[in-house]
Amino acid sequence: MIVGFTGTRKGMTQMQRNTLQALLKRLRLTAGRHGDCVGADEQFHDICRELGAKMHGHPGPDGPLRAGCLFDTSAFPKDYLKRNHDIVNLSDCMIAAPAQREEQQRSGTWSTVRFAKQIGKLLIMLWPDGEYEMVF
Questions:
Q1: Helices and strands (DSSP H and E) totals, the chain
Q2: Lowest CB count within 10 Å: 14, 18, 85, 123, which one?
Q3: What is d(CA 112, CA 88) in angstroms, rounded to the nearest whole number?
Q4: How far is CA 133 from CA 122, 125, 127, 130, 136, in A?
């Protein structure tokens, strides 16, 4: 299973990280995709590596938000919206780990969630308290 990920640059809560690890095991993760941002993307990357998954990077523009994770393969940098669409389109399912339950208008994580819903991608919302729900 190739799992795409989007999350807050503030980083996930410990409860989100614990639930994410359990979810990835249940999904039988083989590869992960993310946008190489600081915070939650880095944490997702580390958990995937611990589970032995291959990692595919979809970096945004160079800058202070770039995490610099080491990938097995990496796409050329693109603007944030385009690279987020690539992550959704090239994944079997998406996991989103936002900083809050309320949808935000000016948020890359929430923009990616809206796109995944729009195209009917299997989406797992991973909330700050560690609860999750599947969205079809």
A1: 4, 7
A2: 14
A3: 8
A4: 11, 5, 8, 10, 10
Q: Name residue, tokens 């945004």.
A: 60
Each residue of 112-132: pLDDT tens digit? 999 999 999 999 999 999 999
Amino acid identity of 5?
Answer: F
Check residue 62 and give its pLDDT.
Answer: 86
How many independent structural domains does the chain possess?
Answer: 1
CATH number of the domain enclosing 74:
3.40.50.450
Which are the contacts of 41, defined by CB distance < 8 A and separation ≥ 6?
Answer: 5, 6, 7, 9, 34, 35, 67, 69
Contacts of 93 (CB under 8 A, 6+ apart): 1, 3, 4, 27, 121, 122, 123, 124
Average pLDDT score, the chain: 96
Closest CA to 59 of 35, 89, 90: 35
pLDDT above 90 as % of the chain: 92
Distance CA 39, CA 32 (A): 16
Q: Which two tokens stand for residue 127?
A: 């909330």
Residues 6+ apart with CB under 8 A from 43: 7, 11, 12, 17, 20
